[in-house]
C-alpha cells in the first residue's frame, strides 16, 4: 500500500475530489485490471479512450482516478486527480510505485529502426560475460540474469517496465539494456527512467501507419535523446543521415561511431563471409560470427557503448568476438544436401536491402538465390511494394507469402507488395499464401549450394491471424523440409 500524495510528490496536478491521503493498493490503466483500492489512470489511446471506463473502474473498486477530463465521473468516494497528460502521469506514478528502480542501475536504451534487438542482446551477453548481473528488455524476450520472461512488446508499458526493472534491482542487476521503440517514446512509456546512456542505430522507413510522416518518426526518436540528462551518454551512428540530428538537442555527452567518417570510434570491414567477417577496430583485427555491413554497425554500437562503462578495450574485443548471431537474425542453417537457409527478421525496406545485399556479396554468383517474403497486416502499408522491389533486385526467384496478416486479407497484402515488382522481373515470382507451402516449394526448387532467405518473422513462433496467434516457426518448418 502507498499513499497517493507520496507517489504524486513533486508532480503537477489538481485535486478535483476526495483526498490525497487515500491509500492505493496498486495501479492500473486498463479498467479490466482494476481491483479493490487500485489507482486507475485514464488514457486516451489509438482505439479507445480510458476516460470512458472511469465509472467501470470505480465500480470495480478503484479508490483514486488520474485523468485529463473529469466530466461525467460518478466519483462518490473516489479521489479524482486531474493532470495535463495522463500518459506522462502514468510513467511518473509507475516509477514512484516501484521506488525508482532505474536509480539503482545503469539503464542503457537502444533506439533505431533496425538493429535494436541485435545490439541490446549483444550488450547484455557481453556484460554478463564480463561478470556483471544484467537485465534485458527486447522484442524476443526479457531476461534477468539469464532468467527468461516473455516479451509482449519491444518496449512494454510503464507499469510493466518499472515492475520488471524492480525485479532486476532485486536480483542485483548493475546494468539494464532496453530496446526503446518509437511508439514507446511517443507514448511516454520510458519517461522518468534515469538512462545512463542512449544508443542510436539508424532510421529508415517504417511505422508510417502510426507516425504518419517520416519527420514525425524522426522527432519521436530524437525526443528520446533530448530527454537524456547531462550525466548520460548519447552514442550515435555518424554514418546515418539523421545521426547528428538525433543528438542535436541533447544535454548528454555525445559519442559517435562510423565505418566511413572521422568519429570517436571507427571500424573497417576487412573480409566478409557467409558465417562471419573480419573487422579492424581499435588497432585490432577481430573475427566475428556475425556478417554484413549492418552487423558491423551493430558491433560498433556495442563496442562504442560498452567502452564507456568498461575501459579494457582488448578484453572487450575478446568477449565481443565470441558473440553469436541473435535468434532469427541472419540465422544460417545448411541442409544435408548443402542448401543454405537464412532466417532473418527483415521487415523494413532497409533491412531487406541490407540482408540481401550481404548475401549477394558473400555468394559465388553461380548459385540460385530464392527469397520468401511477406509483410505484416495492420502496419505501414507504404513499405510493402518497396520491400518487394528490394527482394527482386537481388533474388533469382521471389516467393510472396503471408507474414502476420492480423486483421487484413493476406491476399490483399501480397497484392500491395506485388505492385513493387520491376517489369523485368515478371515471371520470376510465385505467390504462395501459405507460408509453410512457400518454404516447402523453395526447398524443392533449391539444390546444393543454393540459398533460401526467409525474411520477416525471424524469431517469431506464431502467425497472427484475426487476433489469434497460431504456432508457426520459420526455423522449425525449414528444418522439417530440409530433412
Ligand atoms: C498503437 C499502440 O501502440 N497501442 C498501444 C497502446 O494502446 P492504446 O493506449 O492506444 O490503447 P487503446 O486500446 O486505445 O485503449 C486506451 C485506454 O483504454 C483502456 N481500456 C480499454 C478498454 C477497456 O475495456 N478498458 C480500458 O480501460 C486501455 O487499457 C488504454 O489504457 O498502449 C498499450 C499499452 O502500452 C499497448 O499495449 C498498445 O500496443 C498495441 C497492442 C500494439 O500493437 N503496439 C505496437 C504497434 C507497438 O507498440 N510496437 C512497438 C514496436 C514496434 C517496432 O519497433 O517494430 C513496441 O514497442 O512493441
Ligand atoms: N544495424 C542495422 N542496420 C540495418 N538493418 C539491420 C541492422 N541490424 C539488423 N538489421 C536488419 O533488421 C532486422 C531486424 O534486426 P533487429 O531485430 O536487431 O532490429 P530491431 O530494431 O530490434 O527491430 P524491431 O523494430 O522489430 O524491434 C534484421 O533481421 C536485419 O535484417
Ligand atoms: N515489431 C515489429 C515487428 C514486425 C514483424 C513482422 N513479422 C510483422 O508482423 O509485421 C512491428 O510490430 O512492426
Ligand atoms: Mg527489436
From TrEMBL:
Please state every residue range assigned to the domain named Mur ligase C-terminal.
Answer: 328-458
Which positions are annotated as binding meso-2,6-diaminopimelate? 379, 403-406, 456, 460
- Family, similarity comment: Belongs to the MurCDEF family. MurE subfamily.
The positions annotated for binding UDP-N-acetyl-alpha-D-muramoyl-L-alanyl-D-glutamate are 31, 154-155, 181, 187, 189
An example of a GO molecular function for this protein is: ATP binding
Q: Which residues carry this modification: N6-carboxylysine?
A: 221
Name the principal localization, coarsely classed: cytoplasm
Write down the EC number.
6.3.2.13
Which controlled-vocabulary keywords does the entry list? ATP-binding, Cell cycle, Cell division, Cell shape, Cell wall biogenesis/degradation, Cytoplasm, Ligase, Magnesium, Nucleotide-binding, Peptidoglycan synthesis
Identification of the protein by name: UDP-N-acetylmuramoyl-L-alanyl-D-glutamate--2,6-diaminopimelate ligase
Top-level division of the source organism's lineage:
Bacteria
Example GO BP: cell wall organization
Reported function: Catalyzes the addition of meso-diaminopimelic acid to the nucleotide precursor UDP-N-acetylmuramoyl-L-alanyl-D-glutamate (UMAG) in the biosynthesis of bacterial cell-wall peptidoglycan.
Q: Kindly state which reaction or reactions the protein catalyses.
A: UDP-N-acetyl-alpha-D-muramoyl-L-alanyl-D-glutamate + meso-2,6-diaminopimelate + ATP = UDP-N-acetyl-alpha-D-muramoyl-L-alanyl-gamma-D-glutamyl-meso-2,6-diaminopimelate + ADP + phosphate + H(+)
The Mur ligase central domain is annotated at 110-303
Which amino acids does the record list as binding ATP?
112-118
Q: Which organism is it from?
A: Salinivirga cyanobacteriivorans
Amino acid at each position: 500500500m502507498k499513499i497517493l500524495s507520496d507517489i504524486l510528490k513533486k508532480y503537477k496536478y489538481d485535486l478535483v475530489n476526495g483526498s490525497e491521503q487515500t491509500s492505493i493498493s496498486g495501479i492500473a490503466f486498463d479498467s479490466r485490471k482494476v481491483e479493490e483500492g487500485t489507482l486507475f489512470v485514464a488514457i486516451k489511446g489509438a482505439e479507445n479512450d480510458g476516460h470512458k471506463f472511469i465509472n467501470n473502474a470505480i465500480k470495480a473498486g478503484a479508490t483514486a482516478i488520474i485523468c485529463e477530463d473529469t466530466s461525467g465521473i460518478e466519483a462518490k468516494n473516489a479521489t479524482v486527480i486531474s493532470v495535463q497528460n495522463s500518459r506522462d502521469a502514468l510513467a511518473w506514478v509507475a516509477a514512484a510505485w516501484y521506488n525508482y528502480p532505474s536509480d539503482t542501475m545503469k539503464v542503457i536504451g537502444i533506439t533505431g529502426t533496425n538493429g535494436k534487438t541485435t545490439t541490446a542482446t549483444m550488450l547484455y551477453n557481453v556484460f554478463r560475460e564480463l561478470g556483471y548481473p544484467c537485465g534485458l528488455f527486447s522484442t524476443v524476450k526479457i531476461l534477468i540474469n539469464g532468467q527468461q520472461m516473455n516479451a509482449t512488446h519491444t518496449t512494454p508499458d510503464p507499469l510493466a517496465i518499472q515492475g520488471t526493472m524492480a525485479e532486476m534491482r532485486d536480483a542485483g542487476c548493475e546494468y539494464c539494456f532496453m530496446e526503446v521503440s518509437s511508439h514507446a517514446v511517443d507514448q511516454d512509456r520510458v519517461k522518468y527512467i534515469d538512462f545512463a546512456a542512449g544508443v542510436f542505430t539508424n532510421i529508415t522507413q517504417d511505422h508510417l501507419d502510426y507516425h504518419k510522416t517520416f519527420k514525425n518518426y524522426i522527432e519521436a526518436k530524437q525526443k528520446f535523446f533530448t530527454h537524456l540528462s547531462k550525466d548520460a551518454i548519447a552514442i550515435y551512428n555518424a554514418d546515418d543521415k539523421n545521426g547528428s540530428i538525433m543528438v542535436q538537442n541533447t544535454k548528454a555527452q555525445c559519442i559517435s561511431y562510423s565505418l566511413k567518417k572521422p568519429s570517436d570510434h571507427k571500424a573497417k570491414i576487412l573480409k566478409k563471409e557467409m558465417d562471419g567477417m573480419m573487422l579492424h577496430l581499435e588497432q585490432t583485427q577481430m573475427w566475428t560470427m556475425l556478417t554484413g555491413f549492418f552487423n558491423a554497425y551493430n558491433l560498433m554500437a556495442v563496442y562504442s557503448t560498452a567502452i564507456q562503462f568498461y575501459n579494457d578495450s582488448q578484453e572487450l574485443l575478446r568477449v565481443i568476438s565470441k558473440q553469436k548471431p541473435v535468434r532469427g537474425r541472419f540465422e544460417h542453417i545448411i541442409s544435408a544436401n548443402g542448401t543454405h537457409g537464412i532466417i532473418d527478421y527483415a521487415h523494413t525496406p532497409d533491412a531487406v536491402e541490407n540482408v540481401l545485399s550481404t548475401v549477394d556479396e558473400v555468394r559465388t554468383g553461380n548459385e540460385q538465390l530464392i527469397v520468401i517474403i511477406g509483410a505484416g497486416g495492420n502496419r505501414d502499408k507504404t513499405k510493402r511494394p518497396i520491400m518487394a522491389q528490394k527482394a527482386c533486385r537481388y533474388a533469382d526467384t521471389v516467393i510472396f507469402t503471408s507474414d502476420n496478416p492480423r486483421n487484413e486479407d493476406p491476399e490483399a497484402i501480397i497484392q500491395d507488395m506485388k505492385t513493387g515488382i520491376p517489369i523485368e522481373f515478371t515471371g520470376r515470382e510465385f505467390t504462395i499464401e501459405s507460408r509453410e507451402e512457400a518454404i516447402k516449394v523453395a526447398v524443392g526448387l533449391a539444390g546444393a549450394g543454393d540459398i533460401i532467405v526467409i525474411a520477416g518473422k525471424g524469431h517469431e513462433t506464431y502467425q497472427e491471424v484475426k487476433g489469434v496467434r497460431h504456432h508457426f516457426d520459420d526455423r522449425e518448418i525449414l528444418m522439417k523440409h530440409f530433412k
